[in-house]
Design goal:
alpha+beta; Immunoglobulin-like; Phosphatase 2c, domain 1; 2 domains; 6-stranded antiparallel sheet; 5-stranded antiparallel sheet; 25% strand
Length: 462
């Protein structure tokens, strides 16, 4: 082929030295080749630039993996750079590349995709820039500001307690553990914790008393209202249960005759519960009123919920009675030894206010306007046994259950009970006599739930 081209040139130009013709051909071919390569590179560059590459945002400390299509005809040699020291890496596939890993730093990272056409493997790399945004871990954005010194009604930012109940005749007895922690939203503004709780066990007659309260965030002195409510209600129950022979006799009679005439048998126990738990709640209400009167302010400034429970094991099973005003949850949860066949009973109904997000409080006069109103807030039942009795504020129930309907879902309670014990960061060992459970439960309350940063309090009889 080359010889024929040289002959043609000689016919056109006459006799010229062979080397001049060869130089001419070399220069001409080189020129056209370069132009050809440039044209190809322009086409390829346009293809790459028009390729839609969408890289979703990543987040620090959250596992990330995304596959980006990169299928350009004639391009088999390329690399992706710019992820050094980010915790992310690139893995090339046949027609794509994968970015994966757990980001360690936030920011906007400019990724460089360097490539060249197979025809021009000895030429320079072309480049396309794309951005990868790594958002900061939102948990690190929250401040943990101290509560100002000298505030009225100071309260610790967290509270935890474990009540160990020793075995009787070699048979283990249920213990109580509770924890309360200032919410991130409060810590971010240097505000105090509004929740509270109280626990009690009578070693002589084996009665348990538990109270949990959630002070209203909008009420100036609600942190004191929750404290007064828990302390007053539990103290009343403790004192009344010191002389409980008649009460226990009525419970026994109820158990004997409930299958024959439940309503008749229930009356006597219902009256006892009213005098015991109902009066405890009313005394708590009045104690808050008295404190408000002393200070010369409205009692609604001490607004708080109150969840109160008493329990005891009899020969025929467990007796549990409750009072509930406000949101949060009280649940009696049972599963078999294999962690299966979950059963849950909600011992009350969450209060809903006039508008979404509202609730009712112990300080509201209508809660105690008549005996019927109060009776509606009382529950009691006898069960053979149970796995756990939960009392919690909405700082715990809202993130895990979200809706009132879910509060009545036994499988949701099964998942919740399992989550507490198997949490990857802060598992809680709910075994007999584990006094470390109080600190474990306090750690568990640090769980992350977007949009749920209120105070968190939970008490468990197990």
């Amino acid at each position: 082929m080359m010889e024929k081209i040289i002959e043609i040139i000689k016919k056109i130009s006459g006799e010229v030295p062979q080397n001049l013709i060869e130089n001419f051909l070399s220069d001409t071919v080189s020129k056209f080749w370069k132009q050809y390569v440039m044209d190809i590179e322009t086409v390829i560059k346009n293809r790459v630039e028009s390729l839609k590459i969408t890289i979703p945002n990543a987040m620090v400390n959250k596992e990330y993996k995304i596959e980006i299509p990169f299928d350009i005809e004639g391009v088999s040699e390329y690399s992706v750079e710019g992820l050094d020291d980010t915790g992310l890496a690139v893995e090339k596939q046949e027609k794509s590349f994968i970015i994966s890993g757990t980001p360690t730093k936030s920011g906007t990272f400019s990724l460089s995709i360097k490539y060249r056409h197979d025809v021009s493997k000895l030429g320079e790399y072309l480049e396309r820039k794309v951005d990868l945004i790594v958002n900061p871990d939102p948990r690190t954005l929250w401040k943990d500001l101290p509560v100002p010194d000298g505030i009225e009604y100071p309260k610790k930012n967290q509270q935890a307690e474990y009540v160990k109940v020793t075995a009787l005749d070699g048979t283990p007895r249920k213990d109580i553990v509770a924890a309360s922690k200032r919410g991130r939203s409060h810590a971010n503004e240097g505000k105090p914790r509004d929740d509270d709780f109280r626990l009690y066990h009578n070693d002589e007659n084996d009665w348990y008393v538990i109270a949990v309260a959630d002070g209203a965030g909008s009420a100036k002195y609600s942190r004191e209202g929750s404290r007064i409510a828990c302390e007053t209600a539990v103290n009343h129950c403790v004192n009344e249960l010191k002389n409980c022979e008649k009460f226990e006799e009525n419970i026994t009679q109820y158990n004997l005759f409930k299958d024959e005439s439940e309503s008749e048998a229930r009356k006597y126990v219902g009256d006892d519960i009213y005098k015991l738990i109902g009066v405890a709640a009313f005394k708590a209400h009045k104690a808050i009123d008295n404190e408000a009167e002393k200070k010369g302010v409205a009692s609604k400034l001490y607004a708080t919920t109150l969840l109160l429970a008493i329990a005891k094991k009899f020969d025929f099973g467990w007796f549990v009675a409750t009072f509930w005003v406000g949101d949060g949850a009280i649940c009696l949860y049972t599963e078999d030894k294999n962690g299966e066949n979950p059963q849950s009973v909600l011992l009350g109904v969450p209060d809903e206010g006039e508008y979404a997000g509202q609730t009712r409080f112990l300080t509201m006069p209508e809660i105690f306007k008549d005996s019927t109103s109060l009776y509606k807030r009382l529950r009691f039942r006898i069960v053979n046994d149970f796995t756990a009795l939960f009392l919690m504020t909405d700082g715990v129930s809202d993130p895990w259950f979200e809706t009132d309907s879910n509060l009545n879902n036994s499988e949701k309670w099964q998942a919740f009970y399992k989550e507490i014990q198997d949490n990857k960061d802060h598992p809680v060992n709910l075994e007999d006599d584990n006094e470390n459970a109080k600190d474990e439960l306090l750690g568990w309350l640090d769980f992350w739930s977007p949009g749920n940063h209120d105070d968190r309090t939970i008490a468990i009889l197990y």
